[in-house]
Design a protein that fits this description.
The chain contains 1 helix and 19 strands. The protein has 238 residues and is mainly beta. It has 2 domains: 119 residues, Immunoglobulin-like, CATH 2.60.40; 96 residues, Immunoglobulin-like. The strands form 4 sheets. Strands 1-9-8-3-4 form a 5-stranded mixed beta sheet, with no helix packed on it. A hairpin with a 4-residue loop joins β16 and β17.
Amino acid sequence: NMNYLLMFIFFISSKLTVYSRRWSERQLSLQSGGTVTIPCHYDMKYIQHKKYWCYDAKAAFNYCEILAYGNTTKGRVTVTDYPAQSLFTVTMRDLQSGDTGMYFCAVEIGGIFQPDVKEDIYITVKSGPDVSVVESSVSGQEGGSVSVQCLYSAGYQNEQKQWCRSKDQRCYTVGRTDTSQNSTVQTSDDGRRSFSVEMSGLQKSDAGWYWCKTGDLQAPVHLSVSDAPTAMITNPGI
């Protein structure tokens, strides 16, 4: 019977859709009771469009519950737009295990035939996160250096470790020394459930969002770079 066959095909395709969307390109393991800030990048042509953060409560029906729009705070969620950087950030506070699930960074396009632009992020909230950072925000001076320590659980000991720049997704693999712009990126695994990243010769262009990545899990880190200190000029005649 053709009707039964069509129903069967629809059922299988729906299941595949749900399964594939369970695994996001970005997966975060977060501490219950903690706070996280996540960067969401968008194309410059969407600067004037509404930005929002939503929870994919019913993946099978492609339904997304909007938790907050850009430049607003709603409950435990704040969305802040940075048009000059073509990104917005999402801050989630007092994380609970019930917050576990699929979320979307989204730009509202409007129109029936123009779906919103979305990037999916799967978040797991637990008492002991599998991948995290000692400091989620670090700062350095132009020409100086900065260090980041990324932590991982025992189960991720043998996974590949990387330091990735968020906006262009360029990654630096642990155990190698690489060059980013004019700065040097050195990554090393200490073998005690953490790996360290040192960026030296910092440039203003190095500022922005990065991810500590271990296996499929990532943890966001923001780097700010201030002006190089001006040399003090002394008058030997005084």
